[in-house]
């Protein structure tokens, strides 16, 4: 009889019993063909990702286990706890609503930060720019969780990343046209912004939409993950993080904080800045596997992020050294807190966070140009982000079909 799944809770992963194929030849188990069919069914229903389906096929040595307690059957199997944890994680690859909620809170803080900067009003988040470093670290964690051990080393991984990010960023570029209407260099701004390429013609590297700089470095970090970081062991990754730490210390010493990236001055220093946080995110996933060593109340976690973005410790850590502490200490604490909890509203905040981040800057610029109040400008960013999020599935479907065809062509012609 083909093995089955009894009560899979993708989000909480509590109390569900999963029957996994034993190794081929086990007299209590199923044939290799049946195991493959079972794993294919899990993949088809979206219970596991393609990368983890590959891992599960290679490590399917368990009759059953309780996903609410990944170590429940460790003593009854000859396999290591590590492999058992991989199998548990393979089933429980649903969205992390706690981290989604934190992503949304960080995006709102960025919008408030830019609202105050554009309108020259009171700035509640003096460290609002550090939310981007949290985004980089969170992205490293999520990319390692979703793709390491599978398609991250294939061209299709980067094509998927472009398909996910580009349509929304293109909308941001179009909104930037209205924000810069009448600018003699508008055509150059639009072309560069649409293709996410820096333009060294003004003080901003992406004048059509300032937020594009981080997406540019995000894609470079994804490429580095695909080509290098996914192929090295954790100890080597730790040494690389140490090297990036030295770069970050030098950046803070010269520029007074982790500030390079948005501007043409020292633009390329945004790459080591991004890689520093992104690599820490990868290492955290490899070490924790969604089970952090500490439990932090979620109410503390959601309060910690905006409070830390006000830079409350800047008096004690002058000269931008708080920025290093934020990445090394505060961000992992936030990840640990987000992993331990699920929230009903977290998923919605996570879904709207990227459209909000991708489109807010030109909208705030337009609102300021027409004399709208900061509150109206902020409200407009949320309204537009909600509309974009509503249309995103269709945007990704249309764009994804073209990229899927390109990925198929690359697979058939690897040279």
List strands and helices in order, with pairings.
Layout: E1 5-6, E2 17-18, H1 32-44, H2 50-58, E3 65-66, H3 81-91, H4 97-119, H5 130-147, H6 155-179, H7 186-194, H8 212-227, H9 234-255, H10 270-288, H11 298-309, H12 321-339, H13 346-369, H14 374-412
Antiparallel strand pairs: 1-2, 2-3
Helix pairs in contact: 1-2, 2-3, 4-5, 4-11, 4-12, 4-13, 4-14, 5-8, 5-10, 5-12, 6-7, 6-8, 6-13, 6-14, 8-10, 9-10, 11-12, 13-14
Would you give an account of this structure?
The chain has 415 residues and is mostly helical. The chain starts with a strand and ends with a helix. The N terminus is likely disordered.
Q: What kind of sheet is the major sheet?
A: 3 strands, antiparallel
Q: Termini, distance in Å?
A: 43 Å
- By DSSP, the count of extended strands is 3
Largest sheet, order of strands side by side?
1-2-3
Name the overall outline.
globular
Order of helix and strand elements from N to C terminus: EEHHEHHHHHHHHHHHH
Which structural category fits the helices and strands?
Answer: mainly alpha
Give helix % range. 55-70%
What integer is the average pLDDT? 78
Provide the β-strand percentage band: under 5%
Helical stretch tally:
14
Low-confidence stretches: 1-31, 60-92, 397-404
Work out the radius of gyration: 23 Å
């Amino acid at each position: 009889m083909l093995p089955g799944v009894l009560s899979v809770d993708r989000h909480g992963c509590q109390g569900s019993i999963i029957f996994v194929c034993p190794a081929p030849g086990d007299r209590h188990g199923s044939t290799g063909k049946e195991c493959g069919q079972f794993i294919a069914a899990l993949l088809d229903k979206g219970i596991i990702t393609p990368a983890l389906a590959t891992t599960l096929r290679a490590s399917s040595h368990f009759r059953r286990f309780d996903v609410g307690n990944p170590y429940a059957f460790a003593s009854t199997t000859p396999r290591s706890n590590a492999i058992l944890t991989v199998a548990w994680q393979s089933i429980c690859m649903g969205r992390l609503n706690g981290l989604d909620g934190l992503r949304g809170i960080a995006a709102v803080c960025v919008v408030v930060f830019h609202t105050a900067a554009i309108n020259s009003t009171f700035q509640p988040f003096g460290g609002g720019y550090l939310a981007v470093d949290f985004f980089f670290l969170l992205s490293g964690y999520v990319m390692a969780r979703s793709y390491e051990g599978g398609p991250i080393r294939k061209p299709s991984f980067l094509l998927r990343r472009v398909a996910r990010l580009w349509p929304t960023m293109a909308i941001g570029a179009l909104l930037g046209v209205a924000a810069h209407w009448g600018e003699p260099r508008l055509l150059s701004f639009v072309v560069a912004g649409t293709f996410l390429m820096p333009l060294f013609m003004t003080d901003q590297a992406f004048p059509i939409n300032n937020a594009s700089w981080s997406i540019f470095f995000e894609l470079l970090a994804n490429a580095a993950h695909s080509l290098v970081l996914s192929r090295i062991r954790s100890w080597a990754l730790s040494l690389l993080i140490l090297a990036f730490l030295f770069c970050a210390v030098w950046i803070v010493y010269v520029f007074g904080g982790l500030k390079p990236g948005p501007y043409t001055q020292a633009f390329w220093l945004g790459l080591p800045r991004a890689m520093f946080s992104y690599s820490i995110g990868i290492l955290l996933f490899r070490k924790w596997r969604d089970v952090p060593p500490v439990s932090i109340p979620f109410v503390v976690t959601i309060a910690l992020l905006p409070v830390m973005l006000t830079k409350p410790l800047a008096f004690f850590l002058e000269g931008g050294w708080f920025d290093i502490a934020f990445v090394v200490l505060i961000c992992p604490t936030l990840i640990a807190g987000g992993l331990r909890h699920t929230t009903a509203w977290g998923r919605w905040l996570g879904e709207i966070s990227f459209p909000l981040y991708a489109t807010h800057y030109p909208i705030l610029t337009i609102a300021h140009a027409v004399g709208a109040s900061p509150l109206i400008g902020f409200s407009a960013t949320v309204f537009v982000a909600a509309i974009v999020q509503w249309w995103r599935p269709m945007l990704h479907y249309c764009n994804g079909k073209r990229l899927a065809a390109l990925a198929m062509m690359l697979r058939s012609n690897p040279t």
